[in-house]
Fold:
Amino acid sequence: MTTRIPAPALLAVSAVFHYLGPAFAVLLFAHVDAAGVAWLRIVFAALVFAVWRRPWRVLRRGGPVLLGFGAALAAMNTVFYLAIERLPLATVGAIEFLGVVVLAAAGVRGPRNAVALVVAVAGVALLTEVRLGGEPLGLLFAFLNCGLFMVYITLGHRLATEAVGGGVDRLGAAMLVASVVAAPVGVLDAAPALVHPTWLLAGLGVAVCSSVIPYVADQLAMARVRRSTFALMLSVLPASATVVGLVVLAQLPTAQDVAGIALVAAALAVHRPPESTQEATAQEDSAEGNPDDSAEGNAENSARGNAEGGNAEDNARGNAEQSSEESAEAAAGTSAEGSAGTDARRSPGTGAGSNRGVDTTVKEGADEGRVVAP
Structure:
């Protein structure tokens, strides 16, 4: 069923829940430090995946990509909350989008997609109104989050497109890794929430809205498009934030916001995946099918050839044996006839049989040009 959902729709779902998560986080920030909130988010997400997907089966054969992805998730979530604790969310989001632009630009093929990238950047700039002023430590965390978000997209795309295990299952396994990696930093800060059921429920809400649903939607979208295309599609995040603000919080967008949303929508409409990539995928699919067919055909031909070869060998052996038997019988018959003729010549026997033997011997000798005495 999910294979029929287009990638932009999956990104829209991811964006909506991405901005619903902070609503639950607000309930926690007044009681739990940022690192503690990040750890609760990761742990509850890992628990959801554990019950839903049982990802430990994939974890045993995950490899370095999965382990690196889990470590990146732990670090990215932690520094993101440390950054928004010190800077406005819009500033952190705008800095995060710089890494998205780099990944999208690295995969641009053709002038049409270059125009789409420029239009998307302009739209995001109008929506976020980037201001780089603020606490230096907050800016450091924001740029660290930007770099880690690039790692998230790069490794996440590899997990989504590799054939070993499903992308969602491997995401769940990576979340288990993240819960262990983030524990030394966040478990002590999260301790106050462990005795307050309401705070724990808020942590579960943050996990489902900010990690489970958006990350699953990302994995499904990454499996359908190129990495650079996915990066460009992430420009819908700030546009979705404006829409969520209008629908949920009744915050009317300004004319600048509307212009930014229009530019992002235009960029997604202009962008086109390279045809060469689609052809290469088709060729790869064809190449994957041909070896099996060829192998089956070769095996069948080989078996048929062996069978035919075996039949020929059996026939040759049978003919040789039959020829040998016939030769032996002929030789035996000739020897018997010769002995009978000799006996007839040596014996004075009487009767028609003896006369026929003599006459035959004389006639055969005459035909050969020599006379055999009776």
